[in-house]
Design goal:
It contains 26 helices and 17 strands. The chain is of the alpha/beta class. The chain has a 7-stranded mixed β-sheet with strand order 7-6-8-9-11-10-15, sandwiched between helices. The protein has a 5-stranded parallel β-sheet with strand order 1-2-3-5-4, with helices on both faces. It binds thiamine diphosphate (TPP).
Length: 625
């Protein structure tokens, strides 16, 4: 696994055209070289190792048969697009993966002409691809449109909304279902079972082998057609429930997704079809790397590791997510009404612990945020207390359900938004920078953000004991300030902010993780002779308008600080109140600017966008003068 390894074949590839020049017999060696390079390179940068190791052969075969950028290949989520990047001229930048100024960990339209569609959220590939197929048909084009989606993408409702429309929309559409049985954790639900049933049915496997051998033996299009007809006919008898056929897509498979010649021949065949098709391939997440095969969830996406062993250095603990899982499990020991819901992120949200301790009150609904929110609504109506725990960026999916179902019916649902704020190296698809804006306008939704771990636990306790409608919390990725937890949590008074320091020149309202930044800023201002008050607002809604007006009247400048888009955020709420109350004290709003923020480390991005305590202090000093 050393970098001294000659990667002769890879060295010769700078574009899909180069790949097509290789003899087919060389492709398994190329796959091996790609694996080695991925394992080595990602050990330094981190990234989605397991999913990519699973699609090495698939990516090679796709680029061998299809012609990007003319043909369109869309990867669902696109976290598995690293090999696609390597084969489309970006291999030399692999070492810059997920770093500021380097390759994005997902596909980006701005990064390459071969990335016809950007993504980061699951379940988008089929609908977008169908749109491209429709546009192609309208324009009289000949190009192929291929959507590559994992089995977990088929737990997303949107994938079925797309499938529901395929047959009526186009005759030329290729879906590749990459089935490795894993989402980030083990895939869940009836569809996963259905796919598993197909993949493991001995009768069907035998039949399929016979059909494949028949193709091998006779060769040629007619034979493939015949074999397919026989297979399809019997398949209907054996597996009458292959749902894709009922939805109007001709189903092929399952085939071995690591067999390059078979993939190539199958794609060549699918290209000739004049009907929508879905090819079911079976792959192994983490293929070729024992540590990733042993722990598919850990190696789905991770930071640096030892390439020889897969060992990682222990991260700073506890993270907010871990603390969330533990705290909610503790509360649930004494409160039978507490229920935890995740949409395919049991580990990421810290809820695996809850699942282990309270399996009867834990639900992983798959990548189905809209369903999760409605499911929580139903649970709440019947008197239970659901904690709907979803990353801020994915909660965007459930906006209508929060408005129309949870808030309008004033249901007692706790909305917990993990990864609120900048997510860092995952980039714009994953930053949680909009949740204050989208929740703040919904009547009756209380929302808050803790300044540290102690307050976090108090807030969760307050949420568990709130019985008058929706209540939301946002908290950031990673660890907090290291505050020592108390033995017992306390109830917080809703809408009451906390004054941490008094000062009559400037009042700094530092929300959540930016409370610490506000305290540092106050120290820097002090060196300039500027006396700053620091307030921990705690509540985004309802605002503590009493404290706000008090400091607005007693200070020369107000400043809000938040890990959120400045547009529509906490500072906007403050500005609205000041305006309504006719208060004209100047207000500086610190937050992320009104643009999509690129990927990179949090420290680099805070520096770049003026969100460090030094930059904030400089801005305030300037305003002050
Ligand atoms: C809307 C949404 N919710 C959650 C996620 C987090 N997420 C990223 S990848 C993934 C699992 C994807 O599994 P699958 O599609 O089967 O691909 P695999 O990684 O197994 O190749 C999840 C849940 C997401 N990207 N988008």
């Amino acid at each position: 696994m050393s970098s001294e390894h000659p990667r002769g074949l890879l060295e010769s590839i700078d574009s899909p055209a180069d790949l097509k020049k290789l003899h087919e017999s060389a492709l398994p060696t190329l796959a091996q070289e790609i694996r080695e390079e991925l394992i080595e390179s990602l050990s330094e940068t981190g990234g989605h190792l397991g999913p990519n190791l699973g699609v090495v052969e698939l990516s090679i075969a796709l680029h061998r048969v299809f012609e990007t950028p003319t043909d369109k290949i869309l990867f669902d989520v696109s976290h598995q697009g690293y090999i696609h990047k390597m084969l489309t001229g970006r291999r030399s930048r692999l070492a810059t993966m997920r770093q500021h100024g380097g390759l994005n960990g997902f596909l980006l339209r701005t990064e390459s002409k071969h990335d016809c569609y950007g993504a980061g959220h699951a379940g988008t590939a089929l609908s977008a691809a169908l749109g491209m197929a429709a546009a192609r048909d309208m324009n009289g084009g000949q190009e192929h449109v291929v959507a590559v989606a994992g089995d977990a993408a088929f737990t997303c409702g949107i994938s079925y909304e797309a499938l529901n429309n395929v047959a009526e929309t186009t005759k030329r559409f290729i879906v590749i279902l990459n089935d490795n049985e894993w989402s980030i954790s083990k895939n869940t639900g009836a569809i996963a079972e259905h796919l598993n049933h197909i993949a493991t049915s001995p009768a069907y496997a035998h039949l399929h082998d016979q059909a494949a051998k028949f193709v091998e033996w006779i060769g040629g299009k007619t034979a493939r057609h015949l074999a397919h007809k026989i297979e399809a006919g019997v398949k209907q008898i054996l597996l009458p429930g292959v749902i894709f056929e009922d939805l109007g897509l001709r189903y092929f498979g399952p085939i071995d997704g690591h067999d390059i010649p078979l993939l190539i021949r199958t794609f060549e065949f699918l290209k000739t079809q004049n009907e929508p098709v879905i090819l079911h391939i079976l792959t192994k997440k983490g293929r070729g790397y024992a540590p990733a095969l042993a722990k598919p969830d850990k190696f789905h996406g991770l930071g640096k590791y030892q390439p020889e062993t897969g060992e990682t250095t222990a991260s700073v603990s506890p993270t907010y997510s871990e603390l969330f899982g533990k705290t909610l499990s503790d509360f649930a020991d004494h409160n039978r009404k507490i229920v935890a819901i995740t949409a395919a992120m049991p580990t990421g949200t810290g809820l695996s612990q809850f699942a282990a301790r309270h399996p009867d009150r834990f639900y992983d609904v798959g990548i189905a945020e809209e369903h999760a929110a409605l499911f929580a609504a139903g649970i709440a109506i019947c008197g239970m207390k659901p904690f709907l725990t979803i990353y801020s960026t994915f909660m965007q999916r459930a906006f209508d359900m929060i408005v129309h179902d949870i808030a309008l019916q004033n249901l007692n649902v706790a909305l917990c938004m993990d990864r609120a704020g900048l997510s860092g190296d995952d980039g714009p698809t994953h930053h949680g920078l909009f949740d204050i804006a989208y929740l703040r306008s919904i009547p009756g939704v209380i929302s808050m953000q803790p300044k540290d771990e102690v307050e976090f636990v108090d807030m969760l306790w307050t949420m568990a004991n709130h019985h008058e409608g929706p209540i939301a919390i946002r908290y950031p990725r990673g660890a907090g300030t290291g505050a020592i937890l108390k033995a017992t949590p306390k109830l917080l008074e809703i809408g009451k902010a906390e004054v941490l320091r008094h000062g009559t020149d400037v009042a700094l309202f530092g929300l959540g993780n930016f409370c610490e930044v506000a305290l540092e800023t106050a120290d820097l201002l002090k060196q300039q002779g500027i006396r700053a008050a620091v307030i921990n607002p705690r509540w985004i809604k309802p605002l503590d308008t009493g404290i706000l007006e008090f400091f607005a009247q007693g200070s020369k400048v107000l400043c809000t600080l938040e890990d959120h888009a400045v547009t529509g955020g906490f500072g906007s709420a403050v500005a609205e109140h000041l305006s309504d109350a006719g208060i004209t004290t100047p207000l500086i709003r610190i937050g992320w600017p009104d643009q999509f923020i690129e990927h990179g480390s949090v420290s680099i991005l805070r520096e770049k966008y003026g969100l460090t305590s030094q930059a904030i202090a400089d801005r305030i000093t300037k305003a002050f003068k």
